[in-house]
Amino acid sequence: MISWRKHYRQTLIAIGLLLSTSASIYGQDGDPKNGEKLFKANCTACHALDKQVIGPALKGVVARLETEQGLGKDWLYKWIKNNKELRASGDKYANEVFEKFNKTEMQVFPNLTDKDIDDILAYTTNPPEPAPAKTDAAKDTANAGSANAAPQSSTTTNVVIISLLAIAGLLVWILLKLRQLVKLGQSEDLAGLNETRVKSFREIYEKYHYIGKGLIAILALLAAYGVWNWIMWIGVYKGYKPEQPIYFSHKIHAGEQKIDCQLCHSSAKYGKVSEIPSMNVCMNCHRTISEYNAEHYMEPGKDKAFYDGEIKKIYAATGWDPEKQQYTGKTQPVEWTRIHNMPDFVYFNHAQHVVAGEQAIINSFNKKNPNNKIDVVCKACHGKIDTMNVVQMANDFTMGWCIECHRTTEVDMNNGYNKEYFKNLHDKLKKQYPKDGGKITVDAIGGLECGKCHY
């Protein structure tokens, strides 16, 4: 009896040791919460837990490596810290992985300690369950409420319609009665007076022709002003914001993600026009960002499925296969709707304003708008793009609007371009334009010459 109990106790101890050993093997000796932070900071550019991106899916990678290749964590430490060095050493599996994934070289992470890697592997082995989406519960509640409210809404509508019909009938009856009362109360004297009243417009005009002519003159002036005002606003589309074939939110990209304007609009600084970026520019990021995970910001009426669908449109346009992680060669053109478009007879050069006038324009705008300051020159003309979900025309873009800017924007003579270009004219201009302590505005250097903008 005693020997049986001893054997039973030894069995329990062995099982406990086996469980603790297996837990250690499969990455449970790390901190999954810290691993999640490290994974998002270092790995999400190329990896996901549940699907292949640029690199393989990493969920259960420790167990998979142990089962399929007989390799443990030591191999993973070497691979993550410096996979290039591991491949150069002749490691067979390291070179197989490199070949399998199109010879895409993985970034090295010498800064990660063994403890950091343990935490990451613990996260890939046992990722925490995502919190239930609040939006779904809210939608269910709203749908249930709307279903219950539907019969009540229908009943209320019927009551309102019946009430309106009753009121209309009552008003008609009152009008008929009033008409009868007027006829009954009309005396013979009143009837005679009605016969002497003016009964035609001609008689009224002959009696009050001076007043009539004055009113006609006033109406003519108002009509002329209306026509002139209408003509002057032809081609002015302030507030114009068309729907685009692929939804693109500047608020998410330039605002939330702080992406610089010139990363996408690269020709705005050194070119005449600010080009629409090619879809390959989008793919620089969206090759690895295949779904929308910014649950903290979603526009009203839009959900994750909507944003994911727009990313798929980018893939369709560029011919990208997210499963195989390669281009198919089957591309589709994207017909963007242009928003800002100068007439053919107007010359405008982005480079001249962004390079030579950048700081001057920013300073002038902030001086005139102390409560609405800007940090980049683009916003002076295009508005605060980083707050727009749908881009719209923020200003008039009329000739008068441009001239007013040229008359009030002070030239930055310390700018390297201006300092060299106006070297001989600098002192002369100071004497010629002594206003505001010798400050020189754009109109003083030819900003109002017709040939500057019309050629």
TrEMBL record:
Region (Disordered): 128-151
SUPFAM superfamilies associated with the record: Cytochrome c (SSF46626), Multiheme cytochromes (SSF48695)
Signal peptide positions on this chain: 1-25
GO molecular function: electron transfer activity; heme binding; metal ion binding
Keyword entries, A-Z: Heme, Iron, Membrane, Metal-binding, Signal, Transmembrane, Transmembrane helix
Domain (Cytochrome c): residue spans on this chain: 30-128
Ranges annotated as spanning the membrane: 159-176, 215-236
Protein's UniProt name: Cytochrome c2
Source species: Chryseobacterium takakiae
